[in-house]
Structure formats: C-alpha cells, structure tokens
Amino acid sequence: MAIFLIAIGLFFTGIDFYLVPGISYPDYVKPQGEFLGTQMKDSIQEHVTKNILGGQLQVDILPDIIGCLLIFIGVIMLVKHNKKYISCLLLAVITGVLTLALRIVPFYINSAALVVTTLAIFVLIPIFEIWMEYKVIYTTVGISDDMANWGTNRRMLFCWWLTVFARVFITCLTFSGLTAVKRWYEAALLIFTVLYLYQLIQTRKYVGVYKVYKEGFNSAVVPEYIREKMQGVSFHENRDISMDELRFTRVLYYDFNGQVQEGELIVNQKIAYQTMRAFYQLYKMEYPIEKIRLVDEYEADDEQSMADNNSSAFNYRTVEGQEELSKHALGLAIDINPRMNPYVRGDEFFPKNAAEYLERDVEKCTGVHKDKMIHKNDLAYRIFRRNGFEWGGEWSHAKDYQHFVAK
I need a surface site. Which of 173, 220, 392, 394 has the fewest CB within 10 A? Predict the structure, then answer.
C-alpha cells in the first residue's frame, strides 16, 4: 500500500494540468514602489507575472499538495525499513508549502516584491520537488534490494532521470514564454513519468525483504539469475518449500590463507538474520572457512561439495543414504568445512576424502587442517549455539560434525 500511495503522490507532483476557475488576481502588473531599494522595470514585472502566474488563479487538477500528502503518508509507512525516509518527510512538506505559496502570493504581495518572491518560489519548487523524488526513489531502491530487483530499478531510475531533464526544460520554457515548444516536453514528461511509476510499483514485492546485518552481511529474495541456476539443480518443485521462502545470503569470511572472501548461501527466510549474525561473529574472530559457495556450483552433488570442503546450506535432498528429507532441503541447516568435519554413521563416512579426520582427537589426528575440526565448546560450536543452532556432532544415532541445524 505504501508504494501505491507514493506512486500516486509522485504522479500528482510530477504532472501539472491547470484549470482557470475565473478568479482574477489583483492588479499587480503596475509598479507600486521599490523592493529593498530597487525599482523594478515594468517590462520585467509584466514578463514574470504573465509567464509564470498569468492573470488569473490557476488550479492544478492533480494538486501537488495532495501529492505531497500521499507521499508523506506512504513514506511514514516505510520509515521502519530505512531511517533515510525521514528526510523525505521534510522535503514533502517544503514542496507542498512552496506549490501552494506560488498560487496565493499575488493576493498578498504586489509590485517588485511580487516579482522577486515569484521568481524565488518558481526556482525553488523544482529543486525541492526533484530532491524529494530523488530521496524517495533512491531510498526505495535501497530497501527493495538492488541486486534481486536490478532490472526494475535500472529502468525506473533511467525513466525518472528523463523526467528530471524534461522538467528543467519546462521550467526554462515557462519563464521564456515559449509555450508551444513546452507542450512537447510536457508530453514526454507524462510518458516517462508513467513508465517510471509503473516500475516503482513493481518494486513493492521486494520492499522490506532486503536485510543488512553489517556491511558485507545481507540477505534478500533470491535474484532471478540465481533462481535460474538453482531450478532443477538444488531446487525442485515441491510441496515443502517455495523459492519465495528462501533468502540469498551474502557473508564475508577468512579463507585458509587468512584472506577475506565473499561467500554466498541460500537459507530459509526464518533463519536469514541469525545466519548473518553467526557468520559475522565468525568473521570478527577470523575463523577460517575454506570456501562458501552455492551447491549449484557442484551440480547440487553433496559429495562433490563436501569433498571440495565447501560450506553450504540449502539443497533440496534427502538425508544421505535415507529417504527422510534433510533439513538442508528446507534451508534450515548449514555445513561448515565438511572435509575436516565429516558425516559419520556406523562404518560409513562422507565425504570419502575425509578419512584422516575421522580421528577427532587433535593430538592423534594426522590431517593437515586438523585445527579446523569442530569440537564441542570450540568457537564455531559456541557461536552457532548462541544463534539458535544445534550441532550434529552431539547426535547419538550418527555424528555430523559439519552440521548446524536451526532449532
């Protein structure tokens, strides 16, 4: 609803259709004194008042004041998503006041003072109007996830900037009195305003789903290009979970060489926040993780992913060797450094290249990266437990040392 209100408000403020109700302004064309010691020439006064104000009160059938009010209400509804919207509220108020002032000042001010005031307001209106729209649109881009919604946002911004240029020309042409040429720019303004507002309305399904925990740690709806990569690979149509319930989560981590890397995970929307928080805490402690890639990079083959020591989350599959659906299939489980922390059930273990890490005693283990093995009460264990995960290494029926599952 908030996006719809803002879109209607932006249409009202962006498009002007004037009617003349027959209410004449007072006789303000004739000079009546000086303004701050300056005598205004009759020709200047007549040019300004004729081209900007006209001889009668002009009423916009799409009132900018109502437009600013609708924007104000819509923005209030979105402040919870981004505090930057607060500045939009002030700009909406200023824009509304200026548009009202331009039409009523001739009833209260005359002569040279009227010319100066009219010019000042006439210049300030497009400045504050464009500034308000800029803040509203770019803040909306920020909360609608510029990655998942990249195409829509680019089209919206492109069309909006075209309306800005059209309005600048309209302002100049209005002042110069070239009304015939101005009509072409007004037509272009109408077309591009409709186009960018249509794109703005399309962003509504993304509003509020883009979450940032810390810089480099964010989650969003799964972008289209990732959906295409997952479809038929890690994701299959099912009754258990939809793509819309998943979140594309980006994190930073330290690899085994101590270098900062960017990782990607697909998790259930229910645990997106705690996932970002857990990985942020691991990052702050410089906990080593070899790689964090989507299992789709391995054709969703869990054995290949684990063998490459890839830490991952969502993969619509069953538990290894069983028919029961894995928690990974719901995006509720995360595996960390799986080669150093294999899944063990009886005499079986996965991945198959993790034999040296079956010995969990650090003193006896012969693995090169035995310091990356997860144990009870170590750093990874404590962080994930604090963030609402259980550890598979504590299971009795099997030991899944890599596995952390949301409670």
Answer: 394
